[in-house]
Amino acid sequence: MKFNSFASAGQVGVWISGLACAVLLSGCVTETRVRAGYSPRPSPPRQTTIVIVDDYDYYPAYEVYYSRNRREYVYLENSTWVRRSQPIGFDVNVLMSAASVRVDFRDSPEQHHASVRQSYPKNWNRAAQAEANAERRDDKRDEKRDDKRDDKRDDKHDKKRGRN
């Protein structure tokens, strides 16, 4: 009887496949050494905090605020502040075509409504605001010119009297 010490090619392939599966499925083992009497502290759980900063557009003609981040309308309804995704009582398209101003507070409109309402009355619009600002600038320029003329007159008057 003759024994062949070499296995056939098919048996070798099966043997190599089995060995490869065993290596892949065995996973990695790592050894951690801990000194006697010392155990590492567990790490604290990680928290993620998301902060949404409010930003509002104010529509003076309707006394309505719109939060761009939250996509909600805030307004008074029967003496109560309400927040809704759609305003009740008027069309959103009409509201969006009305004059608006971006207000600069980052919290609830309820806390600022009195001052916002005073700054932007129901009949407020950008054109009227721009015109008023232009008039104020013109008034300031006129005041500066008058002040310069007065200073020149005072200088001439002082020179005539011999004062320098």
Describe what you observe in this structure.
The relative contact order is 0.08. Strand 1 (56-59) and strand 2 (64-67) form a beta hairpin. It is elongated, with a radius of gyration of 40 Å. The protein contains four helices and five strands, in the order H-E-E-E-E-H-E-H-H. The protein has a five-stranded antiparallel β-sheet with strand order 4-3-2-1-5, with no helix packed on it. Among the domains are: 56-119, no CATH class; 125-164. By secondary structure, the protein is of the alpha+beta class.
Question: What does this entry show, briefly?
Answer:
This protein has 164 residues and is an alpha+beta fold.
CA distance, first residue to last residue: 137 Å
Number of strands: 5
Into which percentage range does the β-strand content fall? 5-15%
Mean pLDDT metric: 77
Order of helices and strands: HEEEEHEHH
Q: What is the topology?
A:
Blueprint: H1 9-26, E1 56-59, E2 64-67, E3 72-77, E4 80-84, H2 92-97, E5 101-103, H3 113-119, H4 126-160
Antiparallel strand pairs: 1-2, 1-5, 2-3, 3-4
Q: Which key phrases capture this entry?
A:
alpha+beta; 5 strands; 13% strand; 4 helices; 164 residues; 40% helix
